């Protein structure tokens, strides 16, 4: 009972969580050896993920129970829609991504499924469900990209993506998200906890298929 809710969810999903944090995509990005075609597919699909992700942040802001979490979530939304958004645009330019693929690409199955999961969490209007999905998306990326003592690769498309998910602001936000899921989880009845746990598990599985699917079969 004393275990943190956020920690217990991570442990329950340990196998797919670890498959993501040790994924070849992350390793190749750190090594600077990632195939441009793989990165292009990833970024084109991820920009569509981010679109719905910002909407999920909006739903978390709307369903939060206090002003303080609204402020923290809004500040994170500000980062995503400024520094992270311009990273995508500059990377699309560097990788020669066509205008149509930036704004209206053909969506892959994992992208469609992830968008649907985020929309479902948003529409539930339950803060805990929104937090569960946010905790996966950001917590998993922190665990994947925040590697002790690892040098940044030379190209900005690789280095900046790593840095966006391994800096003090991001570390602080993920620590806050985990504590917030613990706090909100405390007040839930068993059914609502199970519902949030289910969102968490589905999000982890989708993170894995998202990394997998940018590689040719
Ligand atoms: C699919 C996916 N999950 C998480 C993140 C982190 O925001 C991202 N950019 N894309």
TrEMBL record:
Residues 17-215 form the Thiaminase-2/PQQC domain. Coiled coil: none annotated. InterPro entries: Haem_Oase-like_multi-hlx, TenA_E, Thiaminase-2/PQQC, Thiamine_Salvage_TenA. The keyword Hydrolase applies. Its EC number is 3.5.99.2. One of its GO terms (molecular function) is thiaminase activity. Pathway: Cofactor biosynthesis; thiamine diphosphate biosynthesis. Keywords: Hydrolase, Thiamine biosynthesis. It catalyses: 4-amino-5-aminomethyl-2-methylpyrimidine + H2O = 4-amino-5-hydroxymethyl-2-methylpyrimidine + NH4(+); thiamine + H2O = 5-(2-hydroxyethyl)-4-methylthiazole + 4-amino-5-hydroxymethyl-2-methylpyrimidine + H(+). Belongs to the TenA family. Catalyzes an amino-pyrimidine hydrolysis reaction at the C5' of the pyrimidine moiety of thiamine compounds, a reaction that is part of a thiamine salvage pathway. Thus, catalyzes the conversion of 4-amino-5-aminomethyl-2-methylpyrimidine to 4-amino-5-hydroxymethyl-2-methylpyrimidine (HMP). This is Aminopyrimidine aminohydrolase. The lineage of its organism: Bacteria, Pseudomonadati, Pseudomonadota, Betaproteobacteria, Burkholderiales.
């Amino acid at each position: 009972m004393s275990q943190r809710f956020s920690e217990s969810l991570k442990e329950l999903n340990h196998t797919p969580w670890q498959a993501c944090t040790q994924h070849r995509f992350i390793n190749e990005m750190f090594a600077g050896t990632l195939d441009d075609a793989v990165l292009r597919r990833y970024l084109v699909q991820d920009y569509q993920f981010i679109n719905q992700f910002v909407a999920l942040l909006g739903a978390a802001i709307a369903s939060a129970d206090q002003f303080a979490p609204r402020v923290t979530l809004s500040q994170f939304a500000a980062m995503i829609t400024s520094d992270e958004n311009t990273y995508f645009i500059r990377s699309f330019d560097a990788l020669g991504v066509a205008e149509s693929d930036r704004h209206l690409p053909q969506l892959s199955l994992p992208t469609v499924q992830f968008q649907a999961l985020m929309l479902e969490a948003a529409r539930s209007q339950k803060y805990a469900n929104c937090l569960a999905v946010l905790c996966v998306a950001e917590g998993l990326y922190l665990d994947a990209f925040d590697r002790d003592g690892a040098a940044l690769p030379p190209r900005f498309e690789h280095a900046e993506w790593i840095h966006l998910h391994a800096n003090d602001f991001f570390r602080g936000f993920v620590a806050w998200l985990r504590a917030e899921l613990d706090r909100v989880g405390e007040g839930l009845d068993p059914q609502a906890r199970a519902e949030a746990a289910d969102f968490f598990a589905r999000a982890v599985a989708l993170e894995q298929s998202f990394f997998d699917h940018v590689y040719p079969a």
